[in-house]
Amino acid sequence: MTQNDPTNSDQAGDPVGCPLEDLPKSVAIIMDGNGRWAQHRGLPRSAGHEQGALRVRPIVTEATRLGLKALTLYSFSIENWNRPADEIEILMHLYAEYLRRERSTIMDHDLRLRHLGRREGLPNVVLDKLDEIEAASANNKGMFLCLALNYGSRAEIVDGVRRIARRAADGELDPDAIDQAVIADSLDTTGVPDPDLLIRTSGEMRLSNFLLWQLSYAEFFVTDVYWPDFDVPQFHRALRTYAQRNRRYGGLGFAAAEGSAKP
Question: Which one of 9, 108, 174, 238 has the minimum C-beta count within 10 Å?
């Protein structure tokens, strides 16, 4: 993990400051720090959640402009149900309002909405909006916009294993045929490219039960910036950092193989 930015200058041609071909194709973000952002300003935690919700659209539209194939946002974990009831009520209202407000953005940008997580426990107003926009955007061809809402990676894996077990019990699947592809297809993210880059705001150095299977080969970028302050230039900084990495996948990697630094 790193909090360092290899460059603060933008290269000519695009404000990201690096060749577009060096950018990740799939990015996941743990949007953390809303409550602390508000507390540091003497505001209620709800103000942080409201400000954080406003940060989503600029990041989504910039990811689309840059040609990303997928953007996954960690919105609400299974563990978040342990928060005060009034805060949860505010969050669910914000999710429903976001989906209502952003439907046109999703459709205008040809995005494909995907809900990651369990449906149980989510209010009907949120589920109805998720179902409506998922159905409306199913035939779109653009970037996957995945909202991890009531999500936990261990729960996702357990649910996926249960699906595989039922197929095997029904005689639809030979247990000896179970491989990584079968497991990946049983997860909520089936068909979505695994993240190349994980961004976490607010400085916490942990995964928090997020995409444990899918992040196996992802690069990490951690910033002390709270999510309500994470803007497009901050997003560019994370992307530039990724572009400077030498991804080896257990091998020597480009730099070692060529005997020089990554160009």
Answer: 9
